[in-house]
């Protein structure tokens, strides 16, 4: 089956919602305008229940099917994220961001609009058994909004049994999807390293403990973890992206600071990398005589797709785009806080083609409105197929 005919009719409305949201980007949990827009639309559609303030500013809509529930699955959750990024938009579009320094550079405007479109259709037709819970989440971009909504009782309060997420994919042709069973996106951890040596004159390094040299040794040691500790068949990334030290060419600085990110695809490798990072930092400190303080902060866990739900999501995506429309993608080293939802309930996370667009988090990125009919149809058929009478 191709895209849902009614969705093609709704496409102009969904596109208009998307562009309205795009013009008014909001960050992290401060998505009050977007959340109000979503809640108003869900009430307008006739959802059986609309709840705001889940996970601070999250919105949940409940839609009950008109068919008697006779299958194992009675409540399904569909999730979209609402927050934008602190990036200055460079698209020059007529509907570009009206807020300086903020833009929807990851397509969450499209995610929200597509799920609103699905909610409108499902509330109109109710051609399914059981209950659909549409989840509009704040703070995906570093704020762990998914965890906050779960902490507020999202899964238990609404009785969610399975949960599904979707993200647009630049480089994937419009009308096609990509998914895989198991780890699909990485865990992300942050490291902050503060080095205190002994500063002095650049002409007398033997009287100093050079914090710059110590920092360089730390970086070299950390890079050896991936190349010499991790199995070559496993994946890990250690990137030190900030190195701050000194402000004069002839002064060896007393202190230096390093900041970076670590990405891994299994909990076993994640734990091993953390252990080795701590050992490397301690070893360099002992070797150089510098004092080194390490803050190792675990962030989003690995996003792991469940096998049965991934197989089902694949079948639905093929129903929308055709037999050749779904590819098995390699794991990505980017992170996604939908991982918390997949830890709480079985489900799957899929990528929907955005065509030949700029990459995610780029100032020239724009969600492709041609993808709307495919993503919205996917949501609808996911519900109707999973909870048929």
List SSEs in N-to-C order: HHEEEHEHHEEEEEHEEEHEEHEHEH
CATH architecture of the largest domain: 3-Layer(aba) Sandwich
Shape: elongated
| Number of helical segments with 4 or more residues | 10
What is the mean pLDDT? 97
Number of domains: 2
Strand content: 15-25%
User: Which sequence of strands runs across the widest sheet?
Assistant: 1-2-4-3-5-16-6-15
What CATH calls the topology of the largest domain is Aminopeptidase
What would you report as the Rg, rounded to the nearest angstrom? Answer: 24 Å
Helix coverage percent of residues? 25-40%
Tell me the number of strands.
Answer: 16
Unreliable spans: none
Gap between N and C termini: 19 Å
CATH class of the largest domain: Alpha Beta
Q: Find the structural class using helix and strand composition.
A: alpha/beta
Question: What's the CATH H-level superfamily name of the largest domain?
Answer: Zn peptidases
Largest sheet: 8 strands, mixed
């Amino acid at each position: 089956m191709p895209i849902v005919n009614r969705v093609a009719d709704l496409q102009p409305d969904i596109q208009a919602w998307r562009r309205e949201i795009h013009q008014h980007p909001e960050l992290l949990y401060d998505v009050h305008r977007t959340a109000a827009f979503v809640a108003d639309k869900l009430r307008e559609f006739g959802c059986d229940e609309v709840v705001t303030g889940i996970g601070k500013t999250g919105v949940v809509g409940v839609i009950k099917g008109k068919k008697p529930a006779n299958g194992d699955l009675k409540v399904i959750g569909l999730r979209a994220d609402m927050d934008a990024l602190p990036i200055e938009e460079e698209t020059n579009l007529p509907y570009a961001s009206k807020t300086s320094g903020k833009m929807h550079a990851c397509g969450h405007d499209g995610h929200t609009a597509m799920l609103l479109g699905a909610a409108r259709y499902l509330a109109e037709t109710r051609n399914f058994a059981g209950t659909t819970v549409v989840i509009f989440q704040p703070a995906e971009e570093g704020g762990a909004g998914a965890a906050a909504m779960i902490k507020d009782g999202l899964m238990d309060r609404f009785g969610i049994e399975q949960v599904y997420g979707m993200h647009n994919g630049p480089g994937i042709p419009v009308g096609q999807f990509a998914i895989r069973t198991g780890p699909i996106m990485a865990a992300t951890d942050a490291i902050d390293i503060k080095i205190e040596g002994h500063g002095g004159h650049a002409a007398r390094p033997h009287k100093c403990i050079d914090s710059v040299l110590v920092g360089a040794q730390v970086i070299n040691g950390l890079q050896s973890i991936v190349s010499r500790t991790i199995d070559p068949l496993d994946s890990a990334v250690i990137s030190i992206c900030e190195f701050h030290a000194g402000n004069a060419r002839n002064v060896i600085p007393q202190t230096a600071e390093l900041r970076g990110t670590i990405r891994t695809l299994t909990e076993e490798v994640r734990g091993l990398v953390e252990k080795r990072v701590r050992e490397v930092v301690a070893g360099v400190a002992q070797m150089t005589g510098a004092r080194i303080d390490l803050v190792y902060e675990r962030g989003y866990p690995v996003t792991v797709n469940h096998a049965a739900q991934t197989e089902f999501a694949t079948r639905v995506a093929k129903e929308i785009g055709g037999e050749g429309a779904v590819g098995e993608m390699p794991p990505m080293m980017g992170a996604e806080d939908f991982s918390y939802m997949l830890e709480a309930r079985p489900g799957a996370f899929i990528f929907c083609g955005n065509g030949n667009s700029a990459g995610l988090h780029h100032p020239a990125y724009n969600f492709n409105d041609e993808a709307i009919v495919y993503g919205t149809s996917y949501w609808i058929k996911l519900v109707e197929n999973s909870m048929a009478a």
